[in-house]
Amino acid sequence: MWLAMVAACAMPLAAAPIPVLIVDGQNNHKWQETTPVLKRLLEETGKFTVDVSTSPAKGGDFSTYNPDFAKYKVVVSNYSDYAGDPWPEALRKKLTDYVGAGGGFVSFHAADNAFPMDKEYNRMIAVGGWGGRTEKDGPMIRFRDGKMVLETKPGKAGSHGKRLPYVVVTRDAKHPIMKGLPAEWLHHEDELYDSLKGPAENVGLLATAWSDPANRGTGENEPALMTVRYGKGRVFHTILGHDVEAMRCVGFIVTLQRGTEWAATGKVTQKAPKDFPGKEKVSLR
Predict the structure, then answer these.
(1) In this structure, which long-range contacts are made by residues 169-174, counting pairs with CB atoms below 8 Å and at least 24 apart in sequence?
(2) pLDDT at position 9 over 60
(3) Largest CA-CA distance found in the chain, in angstroms, rounded
(4) Which of 123, 127, 210, 267 lies 20 to 30 Å from 239 when distance is taken between CA atoms?
């Protein structure tokens, strides 16, 4: 019995779950449907505990809406004011201060449409679309001749064609979020954002997707997955996940789970699953 007790004491303790806060409440996408999926996908890993903070509806009173970001290791945003209300300036500053001081942030799909007027938010997400963004807000991220380049071009920021499957290409296979994933994989039908513009500072390009001109695309390798260093904080930016159907893609699920862990801790402990998609066929859950 004594030996068993010693052995039990020598076993490593399981890591405490990472506290996550999802913010939602307004969006030009169906946040009421996608937030429960985000919560489930994170919690099913056993690595996260997830709370949700829902803002007032459009036109509502924001005076008492004040999420306590400091309680969490990472904030996942499912909020966009593209068809609604921006957060009050003090709350936006509270978020960017939290990340700048070392908090994690995940920009999920239309969250990069949010707060176009806020310079610090734009710095935090690197590039964004819609809401009046143009070349005045910064360049576009391009991948040409094997490297990331920045291109300044007149015109509105943010566009996409019809929701179709598209191939996601890994551009930084050594990054913890992408390590062990295929070089190319077919993502389930989804919006492929293009022409995103912003400061593009301290950004790492993890993966791109080719925007097909036959589907109103740019003919460019558009950024699909990115990281951003904002102050002492880490940001994971994914354009994937328009709706619950797109979120069934194992590629989306795994990169979301890994990206959230990395934003919170700087590490990824989750292994690549056997059902991760390849280039020829989508993989759904």
Answers:
(1) 169/207, 169/208, 169/209, 169/210, 169/221, 170/206, 170/207, 171/143, 171/205, 171/206, 171/207, 171/208, 172/204, 172/205, 172/206, 172/207
(2) no
(3) 74
(4) 267
pTM, whole model, 2 decimals? 0.95
Say how far apart CA 92 and CA 1 lie, in whole Å: 57
Tell me the CA distances in angstroms from 225 to 88, 125, 256, one per residue in order: 28, 11, 10
- Written as six digits, the tokens of 84 are 């609604």
Please report, for residues 53, 78, 93, 166, 278, the alpha-carbon distance to residue 130 in angstroms, rounded to integers and kept in the order given: 24, 16, 21, 22, 32
pLDDT per position as a tens digit, 117-175: 999 999 999 999 999 999 999 999 999 999 999 999 999 999 999 999 999 999 999 99
Torsion sign (Cα): 31, 36, 38, 39 = positive
